[in-house]
Design brief:
heme binding, iron, 8 strands, Cyt_P450_sf, two-stranded antiparallel ribbon, 4-stranded mixed sheet, 49% helix, Cytochrome p450
Length: 514
């Protein structure tokens, strides 16, 4: 190592130690922290923090130490919630204390600090959240059902024509719904420019916000160090991400403005937000302009990839649990028949199908470890001290795999949501969309999009394991990616129409919606 390099590393070590002492909170309550693994001086539990599938490790810690687990990394306190009871007590009943977000410096570095999902609790967040709620509240979401059905029929038609490209079709469907609802923009293909930009920018966001993904989130001053120092490679990607994010926010909105200027009839979320935040002459202040961009852009950022994950998990469940698939199909055949496709009006009459969709959300949550929160102030819970600015992690995976709530949690079993008479229990896995003041504001539209996609695929197709040349079924893995938004790993399958009339029914549905 050169003298310059040695000096740089030495300075880095000194700064790490200094950062540790500046972060270490003082516990003057006289009460213990929640239990957790034993920590080491300075680095805390750095060596214990899992490198992959952290939700499973935190879940095992929960069984060893309790529903609330505490650990530290370089003086930063982390609290993991592993049960529904504690999640409700803290995140819902004490939402004022637990609605903040921790500082995530990488978000600013890559141009994602505008994202309301990770924005700190405060006036800016409340203003954006209010506008988002206005556009995606329960009553408003009903207006989007025709668009959801239209794009779902197109989704089925694509599966009919090119079933081997099912993964691409799944990615296209929620993106097409959101672009239509938010921008009145029709996505022509999976290679759409707007979709490609958004997908790449979102993939960078996932890396930046995943706990432990980068040291910059623990030591913000690292972003100011020279690029030649070890670990500074992230700077090479930050500029590209900033450009992508700026285009993702600006380009589709400019498309809407151009349509308005041309006199084309345009009605969508973007036009409504523009109308609400513009003056009578159609002008906006710089502050309002940023709010408009943030509100309309977050709809895609928050809704597309999460829905893709959930639908893909539904396909995986059909492959690995064919009996559950058959029961859902039998219910559809009995209630809806085989002469038409189900609609959202049929939803209340299909309890097993509803339970199937709920189980998709429970079996492997889209965000197995929810977006981190921060304690707004010191707090005491059941005799344990939770320090101000502690990072709070709700382990959704552990909650959804709590054997006390869900016996045999690793098994995909829709029956767990049904009573003895086959009626639906009031036990919707609500933590799939978050909890408290940070619950997903677009959950009603996302839930409808998921239900429609899964139900229509069940009605129209038989999704089954592919066979190799010797006629043996090809094994399908039940593993998921290790990321903020977790997806099933890639798999292959056969998708066949369930009856001879399926093709004509799908084409008729597509024609009726055009």
């Amino acid at each position: 190592m050169s003298l310059l390099g040695f000096f740089g590393v030495a300075c880095l070590i000194i700064l790490l130690i200094k950062s540790y002492f500046s972060k270490t909170a003082t516990n003057t309550s006289g009460l213990p922290y929640p239990p957790g693994p034993k920590s080491l001086p300075v680095i805390g539990n750095l060596l214990d923090v899992p490198k992959s599938e952290s939700w499973k490790t935190y879940g095992s810690w929960g069984k060893q130490y309790g529903e609330l687990v505490h650990f530290t990394v370089f003086g930063q306190h982390y609290i993991v919630i592993n049960s529904m009871r504690v999640a409700v007590d803290l995140l819902e009943k004490r939402s004022k204390t637990y609605s903040d977000r921790p500082e995530i410096p990488m978000l600013e570095v890559i141009g994602w600090d505008w994202n309301t999902g990770v924005m700190p609790y405060g006036a800016a967040w409340r203003q954006r959240r209010r506008e988002i709620h206005q556009q995606f509240r329960t009553e408003k979401a009903l207006q989007y059902h025709p668009t959801i059905m239209k794009e779902a029929h197109q989704f089925l038609n694509k599966l009919l024509l090119t079933p081997d490209k099912f993964a691409s079709h799944i990615r296209h469907y929620p993106g097409a719904v959101i672009m239509s609802v938010v921008y009145d923009y029709e996505v022509a293909s999976a290679d759409d420019h707007f979709l490609n930009i958004a997908e790449e920018a979102i993939s960078m966001l996932s890396v930046a916000t995943f706990p432990g993904a980068t040291l910059v989130n623990t030591f913000p001053w690292l972003q100011y160090l020279p690029s030649w120092l070890p670990g500074m490679g992230f700077k090479q990607h930050a500029e590209r991400c900033r450009r992508l994010t700026a285009e993702m926010k600006g380009a589709p909105l400019q498309y809407v403005r151009d349509r308005i200027a041309s006199g084309a009839p345009t009605r969508c979320v973007a036009t409504e937000v523009l109308s609400r935040l513009s003056d009578p002459m159609g002008q906006t202040t710089p502050e309002a302009e940023e709010v408009i961009k943030d509100v309309v852009a977050i709809a895609y950022a928050a809704g597309a990839d999460t829905t893709v994950s959930a639908i893909t998990t539904g396909f995986l469940a059909m492959l690995l649990y064919p009996e559950a698939k058959k029961k859902a199909q039998q219910e559809i055949d009995t209630i809806v028949g085989s002469d038409r496709l189900p609609t959202l009006h049929d939803r209340a009459s299909l309890p097993y199908v509803e339970a199937f969709v709920w189980e998709v959300l429970r079996w492997h949550p889209v965000l197995p470890l929810s977006v981190a929160r921060a304690a707004y102030d010191n707090d005491i819970y059941e005799g344990k001290f939770i320090p101000k600015e502690a990072t709070i992690l709700m382990n959704t995976w552990a909650i959804h795999h709590d054997e006390g709530m869900y016996p045999e949690p690793e098994v995909f079993k829709p029956e767990r949501f049904l009573g003895p008479d086959g009626s639906l229990k009031d036990e919707y896995p609500m933590t799939a969309f978050g909890i408290g003041r940070r619950i997903c504001p677009g959950r009603h539209a996302a839930d409808a999009s998921l239900w429609v996609a899964v139900t229509l695929v069940l009605a129209a197709f038989d999704v089954r394991k592919r066979k190799d040349e010797s006629g043996r079924e090809i094994d399908v893995s039940d593993e998921f990616t290790d990321s903020l938004i977790s997806h099933p790993v890639g798999f292959v399958c056969d998708i066949q129409p369930r009856n001879p009339r399926t093709e004509s029914i799908i084409r008729e549905a597509v024609m009726c919606r055009e």
